[in-house]
Each structure stands twice: as structure tokens, then as C-alpha cells.
Amino acid sequence: MSKHDPHAGGELPEVNFSEAGGVRYLHFGSEWVQGSMRISAPDEIDLEYVQRMMGWLLFVDPDTIAQRHAMQLGLGAAALTKFCRRRLRMTTTAIELNPRVIAACRLWFKLPPDDERLSVILGDAAEVVAHPHWRGCIDALQVDLYDEEAAAPVLDSEDFYAHCRSLLTPDGCMSVNLFGRSSSYERSLQKIVAAFGSQAVWAFRPTREGNAVVLALREPAHPSRADLVARAEWVQQRWGLPAIKWTKVLRSID
């Protein structure tokens, strides 16, 4: 176990699933939902906050997306991994600490086998971001690291976010899931700002469930609202994500 692992010296949580209304939910041994999949549309993104983790699409040239590299820290129910690999045709790498989660995604959540553009790696996200192997290589870094209690991010230090920034390409972006209604949100946001700079950080309003997705760009970007809306219309038309709504609930924190 890694030194940051809350289960060091013990067992990683059990992984199971439930189903309701045509949706399959992933759980880590508790009632908290750690991911979901519409059974009739396994490659689509079901949860609203997970859709917002794709907000980096508003800041890149759509014609370059298939040439880019996405990385997920925390596999969850593999919604982001499947969407980036299958729908966006990106090179996609997922890092997951718990082998049970990987097995569950392959058994229950239609995660395809690894191929020349998909790698699901059993590993420690803290070690991965600190290692030079992917430094400057990741265009979209999607961070969703919660334990079975879902109280606060497992990795949430300024050093961690600085390492995340070092992985990004010059126009790369990190999207991170925080809880906007918890006391940890402001502290986490301050750490991200310290690592990226306030001019590079954008934040969504919290969803009804309280998830607040924050986007942090490798370098500051200040697109006009008209440009954001135009990009959002393209994203929504092309991939069915509710990107036009994003522009109404996304703001620069600077």
C-alpha cells in the first residue's frame, strides 16, 4: 500500500453494484454512489458531475481531440475512460489503486480490454503524477479520488496538484471533482490555485448532489463568452454532452 492510502495496513474496500431504473451504480462497500452506467447506453456519461469533468473540451480545438491523450486518476465506473477512448477516440490511460475496481468495471460496466490506445494501470496516483514518465504528455487529466466514505479527496495537497500540472501539455487541462457543499471545498480550491495560479482556474457551480468540478489549465486562458458558447454548441451537437448549460454555471475564479 502507498503511504497516502487510507487503507494502508488493511484491506481495500469491497466493490459491489446496484441497479435501479435502467442504471447500474458502483459502490465501495457503502451506500455512496461511486459511478454509474445507463445499461442501454454503456458508453455515455450518466452522472451530471461526471459530464462536467469533460469541461476541458471548451478550451481545445475540436479538430485536435483524437490526437490528444486523456488520463483518469481514479477509475470509478469507467465512464470517463470509456467516453474518452470510444467516443473521442483518444489515447486513454486510467490509474486505479484497487484491483477490485478494475475487475468490476470489466465485469459490470463494459470497460473494454486494453489495446494500443487504452491502458488501465493498477497503481498509486500519487506516485504516477510525481514520476517523470508522463510529464508534459497529458492533455486532459481527470481527477476523481474518493474513498468509500466520499468525505474528501484522498489526494488533496498543493504538491499533488503541482505534480498534476507538470503532467499537462502547454494547452492541457486538469478537471477535478470536489464537494462544493463541504468544508473541504474552499481548502481544496486554494491548493489548486496555489499550484496553477488564479488566472488558470475555472469552477462549476455545485450540482444538486453537491459535486463541484474545478478546471485548472496548464496556462491561463480567457476565451470570450461568445467563444465558449460557440465551442459548447459544437461539443453538444457532436457528442451530446450538455455543454451549453455548462457555460451558464462555469466561471473563472480570477
TrEMBL record:
The keyword Protease does not apply. Keywords: Polyamine biosynthesis. GO terms for biological process: polyamine biosynthetic process. It comes from the Bacteria. Gene3D superfamilies: Vaccinia Virus protein VP39 (3.40.50.150). This is Spermidine synthase.
